[in-house]
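Re-run with default settings, no changes from the original entry. Doing this only to confirm the output is reproducible before filing.
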Amino acid sequence: MMKTFIAIDQPDLLENIKFNLEKSNKFTIVGSTSNGTECLNFFNQKSCDLLILDLMLSEIDFVAIKRNEQTDFSKSHLYYTIYKSDNL
């Protein structure tokens, strides 16, 4: 099972992705968040095999997360998402 962390600030999309990954029995969700700060906190303490990351997270965005020198993504596969709301 692939240990997966999800960082997406759209609640419906986050729950949908979690549900479908868990349903497949190939992924274990080790954490999820709706903001970049919590994503960085997770990676400063733990690791995962797969990170599903929204490019436009609240608080700290994708670019700031990738530039953080204390965060080691070398052992994780990164999958980036962009969610466009009709309200934008």
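The mean pLDDT is 81. The longest strand covers residues 27-33.
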